[in-house]
Design a protein that fits this description.
Helices cover 45% and strands 21% of the residues. The protein is an alpha+beta fold and 535 residues long. It has 4 domains: 2-43 and 211-254, no CATH class; 70-205, PAS domain (Beta-Lactamase); 259-295; 307-533, PPM-type phosphatase domain (Phosphatase 2c, domain 1, 4-Layer Sandwich). The strands form 4 sheets. Strands 3, 4, 5, 6, 7, 8 and 9 form a 7-stranded antiparallel sheet that branches. Strands 10-19-18-15-16 form a 5-stranded antiparallel sheet. The longest helix is centred in the middle third of the chain and has 51 residues, at 204-254.
């Protein structure tokens, strides 16, 4: 684990680092900028339309009132006059226009009137021509452009002004400048439109209002942004502090210091308090786990030393045995024991302690010690050997733990006598292919203190015969479908590999179990001894 953490730390250390505090601060500021910009932009758009809307309403009212005050007969008189600007009706209308110009309301900001050529509102009358999109100047306050045609199709509101009172939606630009205009039809007594009245308010006052609104919006945005930076900085530092402490502690853990703790952490009143508490508890548990792993590794080494390093050379036989644990340690056990002073006899033991792990390994070691200490005393008397072992195990281990054990006494001549205390039946495959079982007829060791154990056999192993003794981890191996490997598959595997050496037969059985199990994890220890008679 240390190497993994160091590798990850080194990998992150390459290139430029952007701390979480900077990221958090940048996120706060970016969010504030977007929120402020959106809010102020919306307000600016909404407020920016107000001067134009207000002026539009004033112009509509003024144009409507002025159109009603004009006598249609004066319009006709001006049209018939050879010199319109000098006729009485023209001067009468100009005087009316000047009164409208001087009367309130006025356009401007802070009572500052916006005037061009001495007038604030440009008021005029257009006469119709034979072209619907062209009007002719009939009356103006400055007598400019009188009698000239004017292209109206550029301005939709002006085109509508011949039939209804209307106004521009926004400031318009033409050859006379920027203006916001309202229009009203001038009708005779029959309701026929004889001319159109227009009132222009110079657009400068709206431009000034827009600039002041923009300036106010920018000022407000900058002020709000500056005010948002301080709380952003505060919260980023506050939120980053527990993370920084966690980072420092993890750096120590990456260096192998499992005693690292976050001392006197800041109280945030949120998930960080629980996160730091869990982190400290995790390190305590991790240190204990590391100590347990070291103890397990030591126990595994000790247990491996208790198992035989290799099978003994025994005349006329090819013998191989091994144990495959599902944890670091377990309760399965094999052994080869010299019986008395005779080199022609060999004790063969295979056992299985209930459960697996440390407790099973300790009971296995105790069982092995008993077997080695008592085997010499009861040489040739396997039943009495098991009686005494059972009494010790029943007294010392209680009734919650027991041991299944097979112990056979093999002679060079091929005779085998055995005692099985609740252990799996041995499978004997004859050279001709016949399969025999060596069943168990006794209780496991440690169940009943005064139980008596009877030996089985003897059986004789002839040339080519193969005896396989294993633990229940073989027969009870499960696959994904819930099926068990079983004794028949074991016998079939032995028969198929019968011509191979004992070590290869052993390998074939283990591989067959693994193939049958598939992706299902090994759930129990497996011990297996293969004995093949050569001659």
């Amino acid at each position: 684990m240390y190497h993994f953490v160091r590798a990850q730390t080194a990998r992150r250390g390459k290139g430029m680092k952007i701390t979480f505090k900077i990221k958090l601060f940048a996120t706060f500021v970016a969010f504030a900028i977007v929120l402020l910009a959106g809010t102020i932009g919306y307000v600016w758009i909404a407020i920016g339309d107000l001067p134009c809307e207000e002026a539009k309403m004033i112009l509509l009212a003024s144009a409507s009132s002025a159109a009603l005050a004009i006598d249609p007969e004066d319009i006709e008189a001006i049209r018939q006059s050879p010199d319109p600007a000098s006729c009485r009706q023209y001067k009468k209308l100009v005087e009316l226009f000047r009164k409208i110009d001087q009367a309130p309301p006025h356009f401007g900001l802070d009572d500052r009137r916006v005037e061009v050529n001495g007038i604030e509102k440009e008021i005029y009358i257009l006469a119709a021509t034979d072209r619907p999109d062209v009007g002719r100047w009939l009356v103006t306050m400055t007598s400019r452009e009188i009698g000239k045609d004017y292209d109206m199709k550029r301005f939709p509101a002006m085109m509508k002004g011949w039939t209804e009172v209307t106004a521009d939606d926004q400031v318009q630009q033409d050859e006379f400048g920027r203006s916001l205009s309202a229009y009203a039809p001038i009708r005779d007594k029959t309701g026929k439109t004889v001319a159109m009245l227009g009132i222009d308010a110079y657009g400068e006052f709206i431009d000034v209002a827009d600039r002041e609104i923009m300036r106010a919006a920018v000022t407000l945005f900058i002020a709000a942004l500056l005010l948002s930076i301080l709380p952003s900085l505060y919260f980023s530092v506050k939120l980053n502090r527990p993370i920084a402490l966690l980072h420092q502690a993890m750096e120590k853990v990456a260096g192998g210091d499992l005693s690292a703790r976050i001392e006197k952490p800041p109280r945030t009143g949120d998930e960080f308090d629980r996160l730091i508490a869990h982190f400290n508890n995790m390190l305590s548990g991790l240190a204990e786990r590391q100590e347990l792993i070291r103890s397990m590794e030591l126990a595994r080494d000790i247990q491996q030393n208790l198992l035989p390093k290799e099978a003994p050379a025994f005349g006329g036989f090819d013998i191989f045995g091994a144990v495959h644990y599902c944890d670091r340690t377990g309760g399965d056990y094999i052994d080869f024991i010299k019986i008395g002073d005779s080199p022609a006899r060999l004790g063969i033991a295979i056992g299985d302690v209930t459960g697996h792990g440390i407790s099973a390994a300790l009971l296995m070691a105790f069982t092995r010690a008993l077997l080695h200490s008592l085997a010499g005393r009861h040489a040739g008397q396997a039943g009495r050997l098991f009686d005494e072992m059972n009494a010790h195990l029943a007294r010392d281990c209680g009734n919650e733990r027991f041991v299944t054990l097979f112990y056979g006494m093999l002679e060079e001549g091929g005779s085998l006598e055995w005692v099985s205390a609740g252990h799996e039946a041995g499978v004997l495959v004859r050279a001709g292919g016949a399969v025999e079982e060596m069943p168990c007829t006794n209780l496991p060791l440690g169940v009943i203190e005064d139980a008596k154990y009877e030996p089985g056999g003897p059986v004789r192993l002839n040339a080519g015969d193969i005896l396989v003794i294993g633990t229940d981890g073989i027969r009870e191996a499960f696959n994904e479908a819930g099926g068990q490997f079983g004794q028949d598959r074991l016998a079939e595997t032995i028969a198929i590999s019968a011509r191979l050496p004992a070590a290869d037969i052993h390998r074939a059985v283990i591989e067959a179990v693994e193939k049958f199990r598939g992706p299902v994890k090994q759930a129990d220890d497996i011990a297996l001894i293969v004995i093949k008679r050569l001659m």
